[in-house]
């Protein structure tokens, strides 16, 4: 008998595509590709991303790979984020999917693994409930979000880049999280996804902490963590992924993958302005304040040195 769905814990069935679907031909081509996941309704971070991308020289493309909404429960904030993101290429994350067509028992659609505590899951389910009410009030928004694809394949400098929100198999999968990639079985599963997708690079997000992991055959998986929230202890900037035939002077860390530079770049948004806008929507005692305000001020318990992980022969062992 199928296991009953648990709100915020289960992965909805229609989130699954399977890595072989990513073997599709590329639908965009550029010398420089930015992949920006997890804006989380932070309009200040979004402005910074667009300004920084605008300053990028040469042939370029920008993809928002999901969860661009989250804290933006105020109508005007939601509309601003929606319009700015949808002016570019975008894929939907679990947040947009659950705004587009809320599923009974999906909750936030995060498919949180067991290491995430129950209180976090319950708060997320209540946050998505409020955001759904906002989205329903914006004419056409739910249909627009529902029409977004779950993944995209790009070609950068002649190499295939598979852009997903979660992992190689599912929109809300945690297989590309830093936690899963810290295990031999997790590395082996990701290797299989590379093979099935025929990808040189995977770009993901969703799990909210960044990682740049090298694989055999000169391949790499890059998860940007969050563009709209701090990613490292005692920092306040977001992170975006930059994949290019030329390096950026501003990369926090990078890995060479054939002719490509796969990099993490800082999204140095106006923290004071963002904090004020966050507090207007989520005052002390609210679910998002309880769940995220400490991270917004102090960053998570994760260090930059933990994010960059070079390929080690023999590290991937199937469970
Ligand atoms: Fe997500």
Explain this structure to me?
With 319 residues, the protein is an alpha/beta fold. It has a single domain (13-304), classed as Metallo-dependent phosphatases (Purple Acid Phosphatase, chain A, domain 2). It is 29% helix and 22% strand. It is built from 8 helices and 13 strands. The chain has helices spanning 43-54, 75-86, 94-100, 118-137, 141-146, 184-197, 271-281, 287-298; strands at residues 28-30, 32-36, 60-65, 89-91, 151-156, 159-164, 201-204, 210-215, 219-224, 238-244, 251-257, 260-267, 308-309. The chain has a 7-stranded mixed β-sheet, with helices on one face. Strands 4-3-2-10-12-11 form a 6-stranded mixed β-sheet. Strand 11 (251-257) and strand 12 form a beta hairpin. The two termini are 25 Å apart. The mean pLDDT is 95. The structure holds fe (ii) ion. Fe (ii) ion (FE2) binds at residues 66-67, 93-94, 110, 165, 172, 206.
Question: Would you spell out the secondary-structure blueprint of this structure?
Answer:
Blueprint lengths: L27 E3 L1 E5 L6 H12 L5 E6 L9 H12 L2 E3 L2 H7 L17 H20 L3 H6 L4 E6 L2 E6 L19 H14 L3 E4 L5 E6 L3 E6 L13 E7 L6 E7 L2 E8 L3 H11 L5 H12 L9 E2 L10
Parallel strand pairs: 1-5, 2-3, 3-4, 6-7, 7-9, 8-13
Antiparallel strand pairs: 2-10, 5-6, 8-9, 10-12, 11-12
Helix pairs in contact: 3-4, 4-8
The site of fe (ii) ion has 8 residues, from loops.
Structure keywords:
13 strands, binds fe (ii) ion, alpha/beta, 7-stranded mixed sheet, 8 helices, 319 residues, Purple Acid Phosphatase, chain A, domain 2
């Amino acid at each position: 008998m199928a296991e009953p769905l648990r709100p915020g814990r289960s992965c909805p069935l229609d989130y699954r595509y399977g890595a072989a679907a990513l073997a599709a031909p590329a639908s965009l081509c550029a010398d420089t590709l930015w992949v920006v996941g997890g804006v989380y309704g932070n309009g200040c971070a979004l402005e910074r991303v667009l300004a920084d991308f605008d300053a990028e020289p040469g042939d370029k493309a920008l993809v928002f790979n999901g969860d661009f909404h989250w804290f933006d429960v105020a109508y005007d904030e939601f509309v601003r984020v929606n319009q700015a993101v949808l002016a570019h290429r975008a894929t939907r994350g679990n947040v947009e999917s659950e705004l587009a067509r809320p599923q009974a028992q999906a909750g936030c659609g995060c498919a949180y693994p067991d290491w995430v505590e129950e209180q976090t899951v319950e708060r997320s389910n209540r946050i998505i409930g409020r955001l759904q009410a906002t989205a329903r009030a914006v004419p056409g928004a739910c249909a627009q979000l529902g029409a977004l694809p779950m993944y995209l394949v790009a070609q950068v400098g002649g190499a295939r880049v598979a852009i997903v929100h979660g992992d190689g198999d599912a929109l809300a999968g945690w297989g590309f999280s830093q936690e899963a990639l810290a295990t031999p079985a997790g590395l082996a599963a990701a290797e299989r996804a590379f093979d099935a997708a025929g990808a040189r690079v995977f770009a993901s997000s969703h799990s909210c902490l960044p990682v740049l992991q090298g694989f055999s055959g000169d391949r790499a998986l890059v998860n940007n963590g969050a563009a709209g929230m701090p990613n490292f202890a005692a920092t306040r900037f977001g992170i975006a992924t930059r994949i290019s035939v030329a390096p950026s002077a501003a990369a926090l860390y990078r890995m060479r993958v054939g002719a490509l530079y796969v990099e993490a770049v800082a999204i140095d948004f106006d923290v004071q302005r963002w904090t004020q806008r966050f507090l207007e929507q989520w005052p002390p005692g609210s679910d998002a304040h309880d769940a995220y305000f400490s991270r917004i001020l102090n960053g998570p318990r994760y260090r930059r040195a933990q994010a960059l992980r070079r390929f080690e022969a023999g590290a991937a062992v199937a469970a």
